[in-house]
Design brief:
CATH superfamily of the largest domain: P-loop containing nucleotide triphosphate hydrolases
Number of helices: 11
Helix content: 40-55%
Strand order of the largest sheet: 2-3-4-1-5
Largest sheet: 5 strands, parallel
CATH class of the largest domain: Alpha Beta
Distance between the termini: 17 Å
CATH topology of the largest domain: Rossmann fold
Strand content: 5-15%
Oligomer: single chain
Order of helices and strands: EHHEHEHEHEHHHHHH
Shape: globular
CATH architecture of the largest domain: 3-Layer(aba) Sandwich
Number of strands: 5
């Protein structure tokens, strides 16, 4: 699992419930999906694991979370876990972090201590710096949404289904509508990221909107899905550099299936 995760969207209660699942996954004695039965899982899912530290609002009831609160949190990141192999630091209202606080947090996310994991929760990423967003793995919870057009959603769904079945030709066939249509490709890549995130959320044991597809994607495993998300981001960057659209389209299957790519 990635060491820094952003959970956005849904309700505050839903974000917190999902956060408990992620904490269990990080701290579980098993590998992969949390077993739900070990001491670490029970404590993490119950919200009382001693190796989970939560930062909520600012000091003295302030509406914003200032740099001093983040620095106080950072003092604990180098402390060894008390029970588990890792420590998890949850920022429950990351959208309340001031710009200075986010910049202070950035260093910890960029160069985290070996046992430290970070979990940021917020209604929308709009309040977070792009430097923070570029260094976390983001998951959009059901209930908020990302509005994608019907054609883009359909194309993204076809690609996701092909990826779930390791069907390289299916991915290529699904890219046909993108030829000479950069806006559609741009939108479809965004929709594909959302679908892949649902696979990760399903893999963490949480309900999602597209359950059947999410289950198929979850079978690929957390590491594979995370790699696919990163490669989608790479394609988005290529689009911003005005790459040749026809060549980019036919290269998409290789981007997803070439194991030599980093």
């Amino acid at each position: 699992m990635p060491h820094a995760v952003l959970l956005e969207g849904g309700t505050a209660e839903g974000r917190l419930e999902t956060a408990h699942t992620f904490c269990a996954a990080w701290l579980c004695e098993s590998v992969g999906v949390p077993c739900g039965h070990c001491n670490h899982c029970r404590k993490a899912l119950g919200g009382f694991h001693p190796d989970v530290t939560t930062l909520r609002d600012g000091e003295d009831g302030k509406q914003q979370i200032g740099v001093d609160a983040v620095r106080a949190l950072q003092m604990h990141t180098s402390v060894k876990p008390g029970e588990a192999a890792r420590r998890v630091f949850v920022i429950e209202n990351a959208h309340k972090l001031t710009v200075q606080a986010q910049n202070a947090l950035l260093k910890s996310i960029e160069e985290p201590p070996p046992a430290a994991c970070f979990l940021l929760l917020c209604p929308s990423r709009k309040e977070l710096l792009t430097t923070i967003l570029s260094r976390v793995t983001s998951y959009a919870l059901p209930g908020v949404a990302e509005d994608f057009g019907e054609e883009a959603t359909e194309a993204a769904t076809q690609i996701a289904q092909a990826l779930a079945h390791n069907d390289e030709y299916g991915v290529l066939a699904a890219t046909a509508p993108f030829d000479k249509n950069k806006p559609l490709l741009t939108e479809a890549l965004g929709a594909l990221k959302a679908l892949l995130r649902e696979g990760l959320i399903y893999d963490a044991g949480c309900a999602v909107e597209n359950g059947e597809l999410a289950q198929a994607l979850a079978a690929l495993g957390t590491a594979r899905i995370a790699t696919l998300i990163e490669r989608v981001r790479g394609l988005e960057q290529d689009l911003t550099r005005n790459a040749n659209l026809s060549l980019l389209r036919v290269r998409i299957p290789a981007v997803f299936f070439d194991t030599t790519l980093s």
